[in-house]
Amino acid sequence: SFELPIETLESIRKIVIEKNIKKMFLESHWCYRSRLQEMRDFFGIEVIFKIGVESFDSNFRNLVLNKNARFKDYNEVRKYFSSVCLMVGIKGQSKEMIKKDIDIVLSHFHYGTINIFTENTTDIKRDEELISWFEKEYNFLKDVSKIEVLFENTDFGVGD
Questions:
Q1: Which of 8, 39, 47, 89 lies most in the core, judged by the most C-beta atoms within 10 Å?
Q2: pTM
Q3: CA distance 148 to 119
Q4: CB atoms near residue 156 (< 10 Å)
């Protein structure tokens, strides 16, 4: 949201006013954490910020996924963000990592999104076996109102 042109932000604000929107979700990178209030002030409504941590495992997040989001633990993230996005189904990820990540989101965040990894132009590969395990093990998440599980990267209605 901080990288959008001001014209785009103003267009969004106009729609917020016209449609009488009271709450909006925006995603932000960790590097903008100290500027979140600027966006709340700009829109003048409740803004819930989500962050794509992908995993709370620092080595996996920063060395494998190259996210460049360096925080101590979930408590530090929680100071700024009430919603996190996790990524599931990546080669090199373990069931234990996924369990720990999901437990953290369920116990410590108001909202969460779990994205099933879709291969792209990077060298990171999808782990079908891990995805099958996740679908069985965490089927109950579809009934948890604060959690969204996106099986395709277009499930939010964006992308191709």
A1: 89
A2: 0.87
A3: 20
A4: 11
Could you tell me if 47 and 24 are in contact, meaning their C-beta atoms sit under 8 angstroms apart?
Answer: yes
Q: Which of 83, 95, 89 is nearest to 146 (CA)?
A: 83
Q: What are the pLDDT digits (tens) for 46-59?
A: 999 999 999 999 99
Q: Quickly tell me which residue has 């060395």 as its tokens.
A: 63
Amino acid at 28: S
- 54, 23 contact by CB (below 8 A): no
Q: What is the pLDDT of residues 77-118, one digit of tens each?
A: 999 999 999 999 999 999 999 999 999 999 999 999 999 998
Ordered by start, the domain boundaries in the chain are 6-150
